[in-house]
Structures are given as structure tokens and as C-alpha cells.
Automatic annotation (TrEMBL):
Reaction equations catalysed: Dipeptidase E catalyzes the hydrolysis of dipeptides Asp-|-Xaa. It does not act on peptides with N-terminal Glu, Asn or Gln, nor does it cleave isoaspartyl peptides
Lineage: Eukaryota, Metazoa, Ecdysozoa, Arthropoda, Hexapoda
UniProt xrefs under InterPro entries: Class_I_gatase-like (IPR029062), Peptidase_S51 (IPR005320)
Protein name listed in UniProt: dipeptidase E
Subcellular location: Cytoplasm
Pfam families associated with the record: Peptidase_S51
């Protein structure tokens, strides 16, 4: 039976680590467990696709995996033939708009949820894997036709989640304030705030917080709570 397999990263860069290095074991495991030899890279969150591909190639080649970019080939054919998909970070609005412009949203959803193709996302790539991009940190430099995303999980993520320093003199809204504002809307989703270095691993109907740092969970009309690395959060998939 085909199972959903996702690895959603807070960020591709964490202090003290190279590009994607903090999540290298989990990335390699999800690819190796599925006998993946080549990864399809989706660089649409950034403008310079060639430069982004060169950056992404380095770790994957070091780990023994080939990587090709969707921007160098027919995008529909590339998704149809992909052994695994890696969606990089950047601007979430630009990424989602491009996926809609190229009519790739339904195809990616089907390949991941119905055919079990592993999906790895980081930052914006994690945002678009969720129900919607309402809780991205990015500016709407372009506007997609809808904020609804790939819907690979039934909740939202806030990557790069930052706790408010207790001794801060900043008087503006905190990240938590923004998420609670979102929850004032009646149709809002649960939000998983991934701190830098946190990842979410999903296999079928099981979800676990992994990485090197925990998360903060926001369920509408409930008190926010911290989630430690190793915690089972499968209940979020129900």
C-alpha cells in the first residue's frame, strides 16, 4: 500500500551547519529507504534557478544522489517521472504562484498522496506542502490565484519560528501574536511553528518532530504549547 512520505524542514540553513547538513541523516534515510537515486529539485521560490540548482547539487551529490531541476525540462513530465521531490525555500508566494501557473499543484498532490513519492521541503517548500500559506513569513511580492496549497498535510506550518525574547524592548507584534491573529479567523488551521533546526517527518498517518530543535503548536481556542524533538504529533493528521 502506498504511503505518504514527507520531510518538512524549518530551513535549509542553520547556524553552525552547511546547506541542509543539520537534516542530512533524515534526508538520506527517506531517499535510501525508497531506493531513490535521482531527486527532482523545484527552485521556483527563487528567481535565479540555475544558481539555486548549483547550491542544491552540492549536498545531494556529496550524499550520493543525482539531482535535476524542473526548470531545465518539461515540468509535467518531470513530476510524472520523479523518484523524489525536493522543494527549496525562498519566497512562498512566488513558489505557489509558479506551481499554479504551470498547473502542477494537483499533479504533485497526486504523486505524493496516491503514489507515495517522497517529498522534501524546506522553508517555503514546507509552507506549500500544507493546507495553505496563510502563515508564511514572506511578503506577497506576487499573488497566486489562491492561498490554498498542496494540502499534503491538513494543517499549516510557520517555518523559522522565533520565540519572543523575555528581555526584548521590541514593541511590535511577535510571531506568536501574528499566529493568534490568524486564529481569529473562523476557518483557520492548526499551525505548527518549526523553530530553526526543527523538521517534521510524516509517514502515512504518523508524524514525528525531528531535527535539532523543537516546535511550538497552535491549535485554535487552545493554549499554545511547546513540542520536543522526538514527539509524536500524529494527531495533527486526523
Amino acid at each position: 500500500m502506498v504511503k505518504r512520505q514527507l520531510l518538512l524542514l524549518s530551513s535549509s540553513r542553520v547556524h553552525g551547519y552547511g546547506f541542509l547538513d543539520y537534516a542530512s541523516n533524515d534526508i538520506c534515510n527517506i531517499l535510501t529507504d525508497n531506493n531513490v537515486s535521482s531527486v527532482l529539485f523545484i527552485p521556483y521560490a527563487k528567481r535565479n534557478h540555475d544558481e539555486y540548482l548549483r547550491l542544491a547539487e552540492k549536498p545531494f551529490k556529496k550524499w550520493g544522489f543525482n539531482i535535476t531541476s524542473i526548470h531545465t525540462q518539461n515540468p509535467h513530465k518531470a513530476i510524472q517521472e520523479a523518484e523524489a521531490i525536493f522543494v527549496g525555500g525562498g519566497n512562498t508566494f512566488r513558489l505557489l504562484k509558479t506551481l499554479y501557473d504551470l498547473d502542477l499543484v494537483k499533479t504533485i498532490n497526486r504523486r505524493v498522496l496516491e503514489e507515495g513519492v517522497p517529498y522534501i521541503g524546506t522553508s517555503a517548500g514546507s509552507n506549500v506542502a500544507t493546507r495553505s500559506i496563510h502563515t508564511t513569513n514572506d511578503m506577497p511580492i506576487v499573488w497566486p490565484p489562491t492561498l490554498s496549497a498542496l494540502n499534503l498535510v491538513p494543517f499549516n506550518i510557520n517555518p523559522h519560528f522565533v520565540d519572543s525574547p523575555k528581555d526584548s524592548t521590541h514593541m511590535g507584534e511577535t510571531r506568536e501574536d501574528r499566529i493568534l491573529e490568524y486564529h481569529e479567523e473562523p476557518d483557520s488551521s492548526t499551525v505548527l511553528g518549526l523553530r530553526e533546526g526543527a523538521t517534521l517527518y510524516v509517514k502515512d498517518n504518523q508524524a514525528i518532530i525531528k531535527g535539532i530543535c523543537g516546535a511550538r503548536l497552535y491549535i485554535r481556542n487552545e493554549k499554545p504549547k511547546d513540542i520536543k524533538v522526538g514527539s509524536d504529533v500524529s494527531y495533527l493528521l486526523q
